[in-house]
Amino acid sequence: MSDQAGTKEELPGLTIGISGPARKGTAHRLISLGLRLHGARTHYIRPGSRTDVSLLDGLVLSGGTHVHPERYGQQPQVTARYDQKRDSTDYRLLEQAEQIGIPVLGICRGAQLINVFHGGSLCQNVTPLRVNTRHRPLLLPMQTVRLVTTSRLGQLMQSPVIGANRIHSQTIKYLGRNLRVVAVDNDLFVQAIENTHDQWLMGVQWHPEYLLYHGGHRRIFRQFVQAAMAFKLSRLEPESDDV
Questions:
Q1: What is the pTM of this model?
Q2: What is the pLDDT of residues 187-219, one digit of tens each?
Q3: Are 14 and 39 in contact, with CB atoms under 8 Å apart?
Q4: Phi/psi class of residue 179: alpha, beta or left (left: φ > 0; alpha: ψ in -120 to 50)?
């Protein structure tokens, strides 16, 4: 298939930062694989890192522990693992990424953090609220997700309805500023968001890195890498104006 071309030599120096926990896990290795399949190099960013975002061409905020509720004005209502050092690091990375305008992909926790960063909030435990969807985690793409077909995500998935996995127990509650919902599940819980201005920014509630065998989910990484390359080239263009 055309999006399985492997690492492309014509994209030298394209570097994507992947923000994650102190210990890199399977999900982060798969995210790296999904990016490298389309020609990008990756740089892993641990909590507390002072990585200079201006040296990156794109940023992935990966999954993991819950965003601490203090970030959206609440106290913990469930027993959960938190990593406030990572929250602070991801906030700083996202702030710099949006100032510069580099493409950002948020996965699960990453999508939730994007929403909180923009002033939104989260539902701390969505499980007892489910009516039309299963309660148990799903690694296989057995969750029905309905897409806004005119959105960036809808166009790259090439279908108004897709299958996705589900590992999360939290979800977006109040939507943050300058964001729009572009996918929901059968209980109308938010499954994907995008921004409303020019920067390429997308957050998906599922884990596409576990679905690299599926062309649609693989295309999320492909389009993200393409956006990163377009941004990299745009930063180089002003130099060509010199006489």
A1: 0.92
A2: 999 999 999 988 999 999 999 999 999 999 999
A3: yes
A4: beta
Pick the catalytic residue from 98, 108, 168, 194: 108
In this structure, are residues 179 and 193 in contact, taking their beta carbons and an 8 Å threshold?
yes
Q: Is 96 helix (H, G, I), strand (E, B) or coil?
A: helix
pLDDT tens column, 115-161:
999 999 999 999 889 898 877 788 889 999 999 999 999 999 999 99
> Among residues 28, 68, 168, 207, which one is catalytic?
207
Mean pLDDT of 102-112: 98
207 catalytic residue (yes or no): yes
Q: How many whole angstroms from its chain centre is CA 83?
A: 18
Q: Which of 184, 179, 202 is nearest to 119 (CA)?
A: 179
Question: In terms of residues, how long is the chain?
Answer: 243
The catalytically annotated residue of 98, 194, 209, 217 is: 209
